[in-house]
Design brief:
The protein has 462 residues and is mainly alpha-helical. The protein is built from 17 helices and six strands. It folds into three domains: 6-104, 2-Layer Sandwich (Gyrase A, domain 2); 113-293, no CATH class; 298-455, no CATH class. The strands form two sheets. It has a four-stranded antiparallel beta sheet with strand order 1-2-4-3. A two-stranded antiparallel sheet has the order 5-6.
């Protein structure tokens, strides 16, 4: 594989996106350089796509995303060290204009992408934590299965507390992440969210006896393991904090501004936002259950088939919120996590077929590396952009493998009982239904491999 000159690649990227002066902020994920640009129209897509090491370009969630795969971190480090760019989200006091250019049209697409960006950024800290807690719960479950006596030890009990706490205190962790995105003090929203899971408050909520606050009826609901109440609480607190810190004179601000946030914010949360969040969450889960009732086991297959297109549109975080609602209310996920894993397996199957059929040794190595990476790490962009999308016909095998494997896993009852990564290593989170997901894995790989092998003519793309 040709050696990449990262200094030159970085220089050309900066030039083709309109120069340093057109870059608001820069961040990244595992494979993508994500830029917030002052004027998206200044970016020269075709020139960037043709740069060595660039796998593709996507514009979504108000981000100009350059897919770099393994070349991401050298380029990002180069930008951080050698260019005057802001690599953290800017502090912007205007919630309504955060991270968007002033000349961008305020149409449905704009607001949709803004909502997806906001949700994905708000949930990122929480998801990282529950991945760890979920895998810890899996280890404890396996330990209990193979060594039943271990469950009676105090160490097992203590670790079980650790694995369960992030899920129970979900509204608190989500409130923290949302507040950080809104550039507000997370302590306000966390304090109110903590009250929603406070033992005595929870006792009143679950007692079944009608309760009022200021003469108004309180919707009785348990807020442990809920998602939307934490998000709504953080949004409210951000606005209240900025309002009261602005209107209260400096001499009284430090005492009365926090008092007003709690005095106004908590009743609104208890009487309106908390119940609305709980009810909307129930509707989301009801919608997922309705989908399953009408498509049966095909639901994971639909997710697996749609995932590459969500990735291409830059909205692959869209299903995270409904996935969290489904998991927190049912204790398992039998739609999204199976679909995501099987999508990555299908990416691997298509790439392996390309590697076997191509006569180009360098391209063979690229395809194998990308396919194995998708299967083991759950990162699909190098396989999608570097191989399957570039060759086009393997996309048919990719979609077919996702549908077939997802249907097999769905009809066999595959359920993820914990959070985990969307790779072959994540099959352990399916516990007693591991056989179902492994059957789906086998079908996804075989179908995507065979379809791609038949359709692909062996040509490589330089």
């Amino acid at each position: 594989m040709a050696k990449i000159d990262y200094d030159n690649l970085t220089k050309q990227i900066v030039e083709y996106v309109g120069g340093v002066e057109n870059i608001k902020t820069i961040t990244h994920c595992v494979t993508r350089l994500r830029l917030y640009l002052n004027d998206r129209n200044k970016a020269e897509d075709e020139k960037i796509k043709n740069l060595p090491g660039v796998l593709g370009v996507v514009y979504g969630n108000q981000q100009y995303q350059i897919i770099l795969g393994e070349h991401l971190f050298p380029v990002f480090d180069n930008l951080e060290k050698n260019y005057s760019v802001q690599t953290e989200a800017p502090i912007n006091e205007n919630l309504d204009e955060n991270l968007v250019s002033g000349n961008e049209k305020k149409n449905f697409k704009y607001y949709f992408e803004k909502a997806i960006t906001f949700m994905s950024q708000s949930l990122t800290p929480f998801i990282t934590v529950v991945y760890g807690a979920g895998m810890l719960k899996v280890i404890l479950s396996l330990l209990n299965y193979f060594i039943p006596s271990a469950a009676s030890s105090t160490a097992y009990t203590m670790l079980n507390f650790m694995s369960s706490a992030p899920f129970y205190f979900m509204p608190v962790l989500v409130a923290y992440g949302t507040s950080k995105v809104l550039k507000s003090n997370p302590a306000f929203s966390m304090a109110i969210a903590l009250t929603l899971v406070y033992p005595d408050f929870n006792t009143i909520m679950t007692a079944g006896k009608a309760t009022t606050m200021f003469g108004l009826p309180v919707h009785l609901a348990s807020y442990g393991s809920t998602l939307l109440p934490g998000i709504f609480t953080a949004i409210l607190c951000a606005y209240l904090e900025r309002f009261f810190y602005r209107v209260i004179p400096g001499l009284f601000r430090s005492v009365f501004a926090p008092l007003c946030v709690f005095l106004i914010g908590f009743p609104i949360v208890v009487l309106a936002l908390g119940p609305i969040g709980n009810i909307v969450g129930s509707w989301i889960v009801a919608g997922i259950i309705w989908l399953q009732a009408h498509v049966g086991g095909f639901a994971p297959g639909i997710i697996a088939a749609a995932q590459p297109f969500l990735v291409m549109m830059g909205v692959n975080m869209l299903p995270v919120a409904p996935m969290m609602e489904l998991f927190s209310r049912t204790g398992y996920d039998n739609v999204f996590r199976p679909g995501w894993i099987l999508h990555n397996i299908s990416e691997c199957g298509s790439c392996c077929a390309v590697a076997l059929k191509t006569k180009d040794k360098e391209f063979r190595a690229t395809a194998l590396s990308a396919g194995i990476g998708a299967m083991l790490s759950g990162v699909s962009e190098p396989a999608l952009y570097g191989v399957n999308l570039r060759l086009k016909k393997p996309m048919i095998g990719l979609v077919a493998g996702g549908i077939a494997g997802g249907a097999v896993a769905g009809y066999m009852g595959a359920k993820a009982f914990a959070m985990g990564y969307s790779s072959i290593l994540g099959v352990v989170i399916f516990e007693k239904t591991m056989g179902a997901i492994l059957a789906g894995v086998a079908v996804s790989f075989v179908v995507s491999f065979l379809c791609t092998y038949v359709l692909y003519d062996g040509r490589s793309i330089k």
